[in-house]
Amino acid sequence: MTDAALELESLSFEMNGRSVLRDVSVTINAGDRWSIIGPNGAGKSTLLKCLMRIYTAWSGKVRLFGRPLENFTQRELARRIAYVPQPGNVVRFPYTVREFVSMARYPYATPFSAHRAGDTAAVESALARTGVEDLANRSLTTLSGGELQKAYIAGALAQGGDILLLDEPTAFLDYRHQAEVIELLQQINQESGAAILTVTHDVNTAIITGGSALALREGAVVFSGVVSELACEKKLGDVFGASFRFLEDTATGLRLVAPQGMPA
Hints:
The chain is an alpha/beta fold. The chain has helices spanning 44-51, 74-80, 97-103, 117-129, 145-159, 175-192, 203-209, 233-240, and strands spanning 4-15, 18-29, 33-37, 59-64, 67-68, 81-84, 163-167, 195-199, 212-217, 220-226, 244-248, 255-259.
């Protein structure tokens, strides 16, 4: 038996003749928490889309719980992996929050079937866990950015699965909503044991979140390991091609980072 939820071996992908991902290899175990970091254009979002088979023309090997990814039907894949896109790319459909979250149960539906008791329970649990019960009858078009992001995470929870992929889940959110989303994801990870992979530009968010980090630059892996080990000049320089200064957080004992030249 293996604890590996996802195994990537030399995953490569080209788009319009350009290499976007180059020989990406990593093993994600069940219950792990990983941050995928790197500069703009590093291939972070593309990696998630390859795992969701939004992009399919990649080479290499990807195994999901020991089974080749290409052997899954899309419905089977949706029962194992849930995906939350970047907030800026989210379309505000004119559905209520409850209607939207209910649609996430599609992997378990049969043609023309009504919701089953298990579907209703999953939807209500997802609404409660994300704290959006009071928004259940609101249209998605009326929600703030933080509320909308929680609704999309609720949809991913209702969908179920063992792996949750999130693309910049705190982008465009104020500090309060960022903290709420980070805390929510930590709770999901601890309570359900789901492996969580989060794309982020924010190294400090990754360090505070803990777990592991996969750092990409120009589509290639330049770091893979415990996220706190990234907080050194050479490693961050290899990732971002910039200089950094370091700050000790006395409350947590963590070493946080800032771009070189920012005021103290």
